[in-house]
């Protein structure tokens, strides 16, 4: 069984337009040529795909199935073509990286920019995910390199230190806690908080802390980014727990007061993980070495 791509494109055009002539026009074909191609497609399928009606063409039940299949097939071919374009332009390799929210937004932009400027023929695909999702992606081979936070279990993956970071409490300007330099989470656990949305690593972590206390966290609002958390806190909506690196990167415009947390769990080191470094492609090994050169450098370094 063989299907011609132009025939499939024409079939979709006719199905969408509900008219053979309009479909032919969209594909820059004569109506007679389009009619011949549709007949050939139906012969290949072994079933009628379209039926004539007083006001145009309509899909048969088999035609509905063909339309869905044709759309999926053409979409996959277009994606394949897009994936091949970098290689046609001289790209030698692609490296897949999965990373948690903090690494994706704070550390990796500069690190990947430095690597890519030195390796112009390499392309990197970066996906943001929770640390457990990153571990699964690396273990399954979907990602070549992962970046995870905290003490998430990495199983049998190889792990290297990447960056040192800590969670800090941020409070609005003028808040009574603003005169303090340090605090324990238990002192503010009943206060209203601004958090990232459910499913993010930091939100899951905070819910776990609340679960250990046996009392729910008062989440006043959930937002999409750490920057939005800082903005909401600055506006007086509530308190926030964010990585110190986020505040350092944003600088003075954040207009929040930062307090160090005296809890042991506040340390949130970032780690690189791979299945087996020696089996990575040469370019993936180069990227791993580039990221690992920090060896666990802190936010201020």
Description:
By secondary structure, the chain is of the alpha/beta class. It has three domains: 5-83, Winged helix-like DNA-binding domain superfamily/Winged helix DNA-binding domain (Arc Repressor Mutant, subunit A); 93-164 and 269-298, Periplasmic binding protein-like II (D-Maltodextrin-Binding Protein, domain 2), CATH 3.40.190.10; 167-266, D-Maltodextrin-Binding Protein, domain 2, CATH 3.40.190. 44% of the residues lie in helices and 23% in strands. It has ten helices and 14 strands. It has helices at 5-17, 20-26, 31-45, 61-88, 101-118, 131-140, 201-213, 226-234, 244-250, 282-292; strands at 50-53, 56-59, 93-99, 122-128, 145-149, 158-164, 167-171, 182-183, 192-196, 218-223, 239-243, 257-261, 270-274, 297-298. The strands form three sheets. It has a six-stranded mixed sheet with strand order 4-3-5-13-6-14, with helices on both faces. Strands 8-12-7-11-9-10 form a six-stranded mixed sheet. The longest helix is centred in the first third of the chain and has 28 residues, at 61-88. The radius of gyration is 27 Å and the shape is elongated. The mean pLDDT is 89.
Strand order of the largest sheet: 4-3-5-13-6-14
Secondary-structure element pattern, one letter each: HHHEEHEHEHEEEEEHEHEHEEHE
Label the CATH architecture of the largest domain: 3-Layer(aba) Sandwich
Estimated structural class: alpha/beta
- Beta content comes to 15-25%
How many structural domains? 3
The helix tally amounts to 10
- Quick one: overall form? elongated
> Spans of 5+ residues with little confidence (pLDDT < 50)?
none
**Computed Rg:** 27 Å
The first-level CATH class of the largest domain is given as Alpha Beta
Give the helix proportion (percent range).
40-55%
Assign the CATH superfamily of the largest domain. Answer: Periplasmic binding protein-like II
Biggest beta-sheet profile: 6 strands, mixed
Tell me the CATH topology of the largest domain: D-Maltodextrin-Binding Protein, domain 2
Mean pLDDT: 89
